[in-house]
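Recall the central idea of this unit: under ordinary conditions, the amino acid sequence of a chain determines the structure it adopts. In this exercise we apply that idea directly, starting from the sequence alone.
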Amino acid sequence: MKLSLKLNKTLDENAQIYFTKAKKLRKKIPGANKAIGITNNKIAKLEDKPIEKLKQVVKIKRVKRKWFEKFRWFLTSEGFFVIAGRDSSTNEDLIKKHTDKEDLVLHSDMAGSPFVVIKKNSCEKEISEKDISECADFVLAYSRAWKKGFGNADIFYVKPEQVTKTANAGEHLGKGAFMIRGKTNYIQNKLDFCVGVYDKIEDFEYSGRIFVGPEEAAKVYCKKYFNLIPGRQKTSEIAKILKYEFASELDLDEFIRVIPAASEIVKK
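Accordingly, the structure predicted from this sequence is:
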């Protein structure tokens, strides 16, 4: 052991300094022993826990980003893949590059709403009114109606061939804007929006990713989910709560991206 001596002090004075230090350290020994004992007890309890219980605290792992995650998306309770524009650029890409003739396109009369497409080839069943209704709720959540706190909006669906980039005479359509030709089919909708994690699905394409959509679908794909309604909490505040609740390793920004606007979590 090396000892440092102060040259401006006598040998007795140096000895007194170390005597004082030793006295203080001796007083801390009982507390340190107590802390060690508590820690050892916690370790022993963890070692005694069954493996099944330990699995419950495993964090949701990161997953590699897929092409469709630049859009908004979800699976209906019947298994149809639904994809939506996030802004004018992704609205444009969605209609031009990712919409087939057998799909259905949903939109709202309210400006600023996303285009939403139900992919027919994503499921062997026929698209039902239930699927369309779930998608209408999805459109509502990401429309301006959410920001205004409306309980519903004028939402309709059409066939892809009714959506065109050809404007009326004297008009111009900007990026992400399209004309709708022919009959529009309006459908009832409501505030029904949940955030969860796809952890009840074996398909690796979706497993471990953030779920957003109506509660009927959330029940099918998520062990745990939270209902959101328009509110006053910032998206960043809601995102922090959700990230904590899901013990997720996903970036906070991933949660911020899926929250429609200022919201609040509904307690059930």
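The two ends are 63 Å apart (CA to CA).
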